[in-house]
Amino acid sequence: xxxxxxxxxxxxxxxxxxxxxxxxxxxxxxxxxxxxxxxxxxxxxxxxxxxxxxxxxxxxxxxxxxxxxxxxxxxxxxxxxxxxxxxxxxxxxxxxxxxxxxxxxxxxxxxxxxxxxxxxxxxxxxxxxxxxxxxxxxxxxxxxxxxxxxxxxxxxxxxxxxxxxxxxxxxxxxxxxxxxxxxxxxxxxxxxxxxxxxxxxxxxxxxxxxxxxxxxxxxxxxxxxxxxxxxxxxxxxxxxxxxxxxxxxxxxxxxxxxx
Length: 259
Fold this sequence. Notes:
Elements: H1 2-22, H2 33-39, H3 42-75, H4 81-91, H5 96-107, H6 122-146, H7 150-158, H8 163-191, H9 195-200, H10 208-218, H11 222-258
Helix pairs in contact: 1-11, 2-11, 3-6, 3-8, 4-6, 5-6, 6-8, 7-8, 8-11, 10-11
């Protein structure tokens, strides 16, 4: 009962206030007028599309880069592999705006490469988020590769399978739940990213979190801000559910392999 009361007090009650505010019209009456106005506006549709596009692009880039780095660290022995793995763990503790600040020093208007104006475009936001969120795929991928029994790899190699076939038919299928979990977590975090987008200040890049800030802080349109916030929360809960499903699949597969 006490943990339930804490959750209700610190999460459920504020969320209920946000939902109630989103259903409050300008005249003080309750209804879905604000929802219809916000969801039908071009501003919201552009922000939703931009949010989904950046989240999908970030997830794809992080999965490709994180899986490649995890394969190298797990299966290609080289000096410094453990240090590289520890470096990835350290990056998980960095604030997101630090990556944006570093890229600004490199590619900003007063940076080392000032001619690279892509930083203030959606591509700059995508580069910053891939740089920041790749460890969130790298770490689950390393854990998934570590759970693959060495006997499976040895048997596949003894049967004449080459390295690429072993990778395609043994390693990647066995690590699929871990990769899916890392991809869902990355998409969840990228969809809610606020600091990188705001700090870079990319032109015409307005995501749902930025739109909540604009509606609530800049224009003081709290009902509209609450509508966007509720939509963002729903997206986040769906992605979190997918993340938990991927984790449960990985736990069941690990239990079967151990048995």
